[in-house]
Records
---
Amino acid sequence: MPAVQETIDRVKAIDVDQYKYGFVTDIDSERGAKGLSEETVRFLSAKKDEPEWMTEWRLDALRRFQQMEEPDWARVSYPKIDFDELYYWASPKSVEGPKSLDEVDPELLATYEKLGIPLREQEVLAGVEPKNRVAVDAVFDSVSVVTTFKEELKKAGVIFCSISEAVREYPDLVRKYLGSVVPVTDNYYATLNSAVFSDGSFVYVPEGVRCPMELSTYFRINEQNTGQFERTLIIAEKGAYVSYLEGCTAPQRDENQLHAAVVELVALDDAEIKYSTVQNWFPGDKDGKGGIYNFVTKRGDCRGKNSKISWTQVETGSAITWKYPSCILRGENSRGEFYSIAVANGYQQIDSGTKMIHLGKNSSSRIISKGISAGKSQNTYRGLVSAHRKASNARNFTQCDSLLIGQDCGAHTVPYIESKNASAQFEHEATTSKISDDQMFYCLQRGLTEEEAVALIVNGFVKDVIQQLPMEFAVEAQKLISISLEGSVG
Amino acid sequence: MLEIKNLHARIAEDHTEILHGVDLTVNAGEVHAIMGPNGSGKSTLSYVLAGKDDYEVTEGEVLFNGRNMLDMSPDERAAAGMFLAFQYPIEIPGVATMEFLKTAMNAQRKARGEPQLSIPDFMKRVKEAAGFLNVSMDMLKRPLNVGFSGGEKKRAEILQMSLLEPKLCVLDETDSGLDIDALRIVSDGVNKLRGPDRAMVVITHYQRLLDHIVPDVVHVLSKGRIVKTGDKDLALELEKNGYADYVDAAA
């Protein structure tokens, strides 16, 4: 049928080059630590003025990493990464420890402005309702350049700073929790991260405190041939609540860039952590050249009774995504949630999902995953739901929906379900659908253009997940999805 | 308003010709009914007018207010004022009816270079039109056509028609699947839209719809051609004697 032929042609002509954040910031920067070695690790650690225990922790991870082999079970393919060709440290020259925004390179501020990230607190205060304020930690290449609203958060007892600062200022907390959710040897990329992590955010919300504003980290990779290895650690003490959002972009480059992050969340009794991600790394050009390799380990530990951890992710970027934000439901009555929208277009490959490990009694979890594939992309949902012997009355509900646009893409669903307790109840629902020619024609007949029609239908498809995002970001996420799919339907 | 001249059209996939030279002129302010047996090409005619690409026009032309409509894409035809009420309205999961209405109205306004509707203006229009068609607020919040009953689907079509204010309305078997009460509501909705600047083409199997929407002209379509044209009494005659006379005539 002509509709289908036209779709194929349009998909062939797909222009992924419209990536909006593909500019490079021309900034004086320092790059060092090429190749993966003990020397590199020591150099990194020294750069950050780290205490001896931290250096040793890193070196231990490096030694373990050198014994490990790259896993190949994910449904993604890419040329082997040469870790000796990478730089492990890149930093804007002028910003080694800025005391205030005035010391930050104006080019950098301009970059974040271009990205729509407000770093000047006054500006944030000027236009926006006080309750909608968002504190931002901006990470540029390997270093955190600025963290906003620090003082105000401190008044509430909340610590929000870069992980480097936390290692120096709050060593007891960091030592207690770092690596306690994702052990050093957890997996290949997590081990690599443990050895060479550059910067990231640290959040500590004390007992009974409800964090007074949204916290956010904004990651940007600017330098060439540089890996970004961020490390985030969030601790919610008893009865605490925090909502955290991370956003990511990178310039358009021909080479692939590596991003291997580790995020650890710890929720104690009655605590709640809501973690949202809007990931828009450069996905590669229309021929599949360049783009970010995104190998990320994210895990939350519902350590206390009645604790709750909720992951929401909108993934539209990266050439390769390998990511499974998970929950360990250790506490009684603990709850884990995973809401995901993964959009793949062009030559993008996504292998993503979640793990819900039920250890505690009456623990419950919910997984809503929406995968959209267009172009020549491959999109795999991979998820594990397991109940241990002691996890009586564990409950899970999983819904996995895939939407295909065009003829040359693929959607795959790989659920693993393991129950060692007879009282556990796990439900799994999955659907795969296409945007039908009839739906398109109906929308066009009402006056929508093809792009408007696709955007409308896709937004309907992802609605359940968009509703989970903090209000401020829901609209942004919707726009992002539309942009990612531009030109995908004929 | 609408001039169809010697229109030939076939199914794109297998080249089966369905329309073998349709001639039809509909002037502003007129309501024309097209009747005919199953397989006579009624629905095909409506799809060809709306620009569905499952069909190819091989001969003839269609002028809409003097413009060659066959050169326009479906969304351009819609923005120019062509509306098709579907026999089987399509489900759009996750998209609230209200949201769909707003998106469609603003898309057409944008195409015509008009400003977007303000929210209060939009709400006022929707409430008024929905009230007349007995469409509840609850129904407007549900995803478009998903889980709608036959009657709800048809009322939603007429609601869209009222709000989009088209110049040419083509109604494809709008009476199918309606009980007597729903038929009356839908017909009232359609009649309200009759006016000197608007033309309507009502496609139906049965005369009963034409008791409610009284046409100015009635055509009989058989085997892809218009074989008989008359006034509203023609519909009554067909009701009594069936299509047999005309089907044979066309053969």
---
Amino acid sequence: MSNFPQLIANGLVQGLFIAMAALAITLAFSIARFPNAATGDVMTAGAYTGLATQSATGSLILAGIVAIFTGAAISLAADRLVFRKLAGRAVVASLVASIGVAFVIRAVLGVTFGLSQLVYDIPLTRAKLYWGVRLTPLDLQVAGAVALALALVFGILHLTPIGRQMRAVADDRDLARVSGVRPERVMLALWMISGGVAGLAGMMLGIKTVVEPELGWSMLLPAFTAAILGGIGSPGGAVAAGLLLGVVQEMSTPFVGFNYKLAIAFAALLGVLLWRPSGLFGKREGVR
Amino acid sequence: MSLLEIADLRGGYGEVDILNGVSLTLEAGEIVTVAGTNGAGKSTLAKAIVGLLPVVRGVLNFEGQGILGLPPELRMARGIGYVPQVANVFPSLSIVENLQVVGGVANQKARMGELLDAFPALAQRRRARAGSLSGGERQQLAFARALMASPRLMVLDEPTAALSPKMVADAFERIRALPRFGVSVLVVEQRARQSLAVSDRGYILDGGKVAMSGAASALLSDDRAASLYLGRHAGR
């Protein structure tokens, strides 16, 4: 018989990574108004630069800071060089451009770090049993760091002036502008936060698994799924849906096997969207 | 010098002009109604003044300074507040957050306190999300938000459009009270008679330009204005 508490715990840990990526995607969507397909590769960049920093200094904290700054810097550069120039055009133009940005990031990482799998230098630790669930200290540390980062982002969004301005622009860009909100400041904050979250998520995922050029790309579909499932544009919804998706995927493995767990996630997505087209936590659109 | 001076204003959303040479003025302390039939360009004019119309040419001076090249956020910083027609609050933000989000307010806490005193219905529900408010409460919040930065001019785009008939009279009373906040008002309104009744002067647009203008009382008693533009719906 399967150990369901163990699967739920594994799913929650996996779900935290999906949640972070989904949060980065949904923030960009709600403010810049397009699905940013480069998010996965920004994660990968964070994983590689974090790894390089840890190799050079031995410090994981410094590696985390570098991963955050890398993600933020790449996202800001992509906005300045590409996304900003396409603002006001069809959403599909920005989406396709973001796929292009993703390939460029991956190519640069491939040339810089090679294509083989790399691992963080983390001492092996023995898993401990917590109420019948086996978890390593690393699992708990990574989950704690991710949860802290999510709390920090939500703190920024709800407790700071720039966070309020970001939420205002997400609600109504024109109304925000006539209320004195400067869009360039909001976009700067958006790409710093969205990129920083993606960079840190990539590093955490790299610590938990291996670092390879496809690391973030493989996370992109579940992250988009969570962003849609949570109600696109809803940060809280993206995080909740990411956790839910992680658990659903893990819970399905005893029945369909590891290879098909993503298909189960998509079946769940389809089911939810048929029942509630705006997602679990999205705003219901109506016609006045 | 007029507070607002518009001369030969033309523009629209693309290649076709909706405004075809509008000229009007607004003096400090005045309430001015802009009326007209559907499609006359009333809301387009409001958007042109606050900077939300993509294509605009002509003269647009505020306090003697040309503002045509300024983005909406800088026009707001110069002293122009705007209450849009329907989507006039940030629905996912609370009442307090809707006020806090306004940029360039010197003493934000004190100003918020003044406005919550002026709109007691908002003070009672200050933590409620704006999306959960009734039409009347939303409009009060929209007025309070626009007043946060102490503008000298408020542009109101169809302020009674989303209100139940019962709330319409309250809304016009609220407009009549605005000069007490030191604000002049340009109100674009479909309910022209009621709007002119609380205004000093009025302009009637037709086909994107001014067809008639004058003192509000004169327009209300003008037979041509009544038959062509104002309708016979006094008291409604």
---
Amino acid sequence: MDLIFEGIKQAFFLLLSFDREVIGITWLSLKISGTATFVSLFIGISTGMVVALNDFPGRRLVVSLINTGMGLPPVVVGLFVTIFLWRNGPLGFLEILYTPAAMILAQAIIATPIVTGISLAAIQQLPRNLRLQILALGATRIQMVWILVKEAKLPLLAAVMAGFGGVISEVGASIMVGGNIKGYSRVLTTATVMETSRGNFDIAIALGIILLLLAFVINAILTGIQQRERPR
Amino acid sequence: MNMEQPVLAVKNLLVKRGGATVLDIDAFSVNRGEVVGLIGPNGAGKSTLLLAMSKLLKAKRGNMYFKGNDIESGNGAFAYRRMLSMVFQEPLLFDTTVYNNIASGLKIRGMASSGIRKTVMEHLNRFGISHLAKRSARKLSGGEAQRTSLARAFATGPEIIFLDEPFSSLDPPTREALMDDLQRNLQEAGATAVMATHDQMEALRLADRIAVMNQGRIVQMGPPEEVINQPVDEFVASFVGTETILRGKLIKTGEGTFTIAVSGHEIEAVGTGQIGETVVCCIRPEHVTISANPPGSATSSRNSFRGRIVKISRSGFFYKISMDCGFPLVAYITSSSLENLMLKEETQVFAAVKATAIHVIKHSPSMGS
């Protein structure tokens, strides 16, 4: 029990003293996972939209692939990203293995199917004729897509939350492609793993609390956006 | 008839779905200020025709002319779509206020907000929903939601409005009230409209012309009276409520009249024909009168049959009397007539129909039925 109390005490001390290393790690986590989520939103919502609104041969297969992708194990993603970015791998010339860029890439690959899958479901649950109704109101295709996004904003924000939640808490791929280099590619999850393995439970607990707080704050903000201004 | 150019003309329109033809229209046109009712059973192609006419569905082939100009695909179709409105069976409102819903078509067109305000207020008023302006569209009753949808459609000042069964999911009193409002607004706006419905009463009430559809084709088009009283074939006859449809043979011709033999009985009708022709007699139930005694000899132009009541059933506010006169014959009577005549099943009665009330179809294509 002492271990935990001591850990929590130490954690609060670290937090309240604004330890520079901890702040650096937190900021990097936010930057990497934020960027990866942003990229995945772009690809995921567009792909979800295209698949939801069009009928083409093999559509069912694409939908199952997307849904399978929603449960992509981060270590598998880490493995393949590592292979691709390896010095003599297909993308080795980029020379980004063990950099934050590689971590963004891996996290975006993890988040994209999640965002795509939820976007797809979000658009599909809108009434079938809604799209025709919007076009009949004189909308251009771009206006139509924008109105559909607005109509599906609640589930689409859920997609953002799920995507961000998935990558900020992910550790396997980040360690594999980022290398957990101090001050460079060390994020909250990789640091927690390392400190725990070293027996530095106080720091590990502090990092864990920050991770939880971060997830809570981000989701609280998104939930606020999601639930605000619904006319009564 | 209106001789100026039709607002919309469709020629040789063909729509296929999964290889099967779902719509095949040789010619269809709508004149300025006219309301055309599209009637037909489910799956007849009414909705498909509306979607094709609003360029929301790709046709295999066909030409469409808006005020005489070909609506070519691409920007032409887009420009055309900004001149029409569409109302579906479901209100399909956006997740915002009633006000913003009605404003949506105007916002899409980039109208200034002062102009939007004026137009939205006017249309809230027209459809009696001013008090709901700030209400969420998710919190409306079925009738209120459909009113909002109609107001949204009228707000853009469309040249033509397509209505796809706009009342079919509403309860009767709401439907009644909404139909009045739609009729008034169509008249006030001098709007041109095409309304699909499977309810012939709706079409009779609102339409200047009726087009009857079956299996992707328009089988008859004309003023309501004409479609009701002179159906072109057995399908149309039965769809518009002709209860008695009898096949017979022309056996005698007179001066402007002829006699048809149906199951050994003779029916007299007005018109000309050739002896030996096979024809179909259509008798609408409201044209059949029932009496307890044989009608007097003064009514020589009448066909009179002795029959037995097989079944009495309620049909709306009337009673449907099914008789066996050697051939089946159906009449509608009011409840007071039913009481006065003391009609019961198995009662012997006399049924009379004027020769002019019998519509005869010649060369009727076999309708599968």
---
Amino acid sequence: MAVHTPFRAEVLTPTGELFAGEVQQVSTRTVAGEIGILAKHQPLLGRLEPAELRLTLPDDGEVKRFIQTGGYLQVAQDGNVLLLVDHAYPVEEYDRADAEAQQREADERLEKTEPGTEAHRLARAGKRRADALVRLGDTLQNR
Amino acid sequence: MAQSDVKARIGSVQNIRKITRAMEMVSASRLRKAEQRASSLRPYADAVRRMTSQAAAAAGSGELQSQPVLQTHEQEKVVGLVLITADRGLAGAFNSQILRAGLTRAQELEASGEEVRYYVTGRRGESALNFRNKPIDGAYTGFTDAPNASHAHRVAEDLVAAYVDQKLDRVEVIYNGYVSPLVQEVRRETLLPLAAANIVDDSGEHDIAPAEESDGPKALVEYEPDPAEILAELVPEFVEISLLRAMLESAASEHGARMTAMSSASDNAADVIETLTLAMNRARQADITQEIMEVVAGAEALN
């Protein structure tokens, strides 16, 4: 594997810093689709979808894998990358049952809210994220 | 007072002191945890705020009106006041100063013809508002000593939904900001509308500078989806994180306030014990003197 110029990446969650340091590449998923970021990427602000987040470290090319449940991605003018993730954890800790429980909860919320209200719109967004999280489990399993 | 009464009182004060000491210790250890959680949220909260201001700058004022959550309502008639209090008392002025600030603010607003809707976290605040017959639109209890993102999410979702559905025109939060274990200060922040919220950064120094501040040639920023849509998603996130931050700071303040209150209660108990012990010794001395006098008087009578 080719070695790319390293750059700085930070992954922040509400409970603290998940990762901070040099990486060769950041691979994740925004609402527009899969995205891989190398050094000197164009400045970007994007909404993250539930997906696998891969950070390729410099030197030996070791890949750190996390599950992200949603959040924001920012590439600054200097090419540094900041990921704000609502909730993130190592791939090994993916819990199918928990994802499905969240999906059921999202379904319930959706049913309780009235169509046309903002509460309904938010519930729908929650449902979409919960579905994506379950689908993510399928892709991980089939690997 | 008879000796035995004083003895009983000393015993009960000693028991109280044991309890207040224990509560002080518990609060001290919870304070550490709460303080740590509040400080680990800070970088994230700052980053959300920065991104929100970047997206707001990029979206421009015209597009700000395209998403309901970004709109400033034409008339500000209904104000949602979010009061962050605790589930439990015994924390000095912790809860009462929030209620006082909240009610004062409500009076101000009502004086200028606005309607106030209360949202409250913590049982103390809820019962105090009920007692005063204030209408509560949302009460959230049972988590104030260790709040997490899902609690903040629930409150934020209700507020944002009410704002977008035009039930609220403005949202303010009042909470105990954490300064140090001994000092809490009442803070009031505006969360919505976005234009009134303090999203322009006040703290300066940041490792990843926002686009509009860096020098030299600037590359065009790409947005996925477009800035107004990102902003529409960021605003609820901003409200949620601001609330979570307020709740976490309030939790740290609560433990700090309780620790201080219990520490002075323990000190006070020690003083009371000392006074009572003196009183008891004096009573015992009086009894002994009395007895001796009776014995002497009796002996003299026999002679």
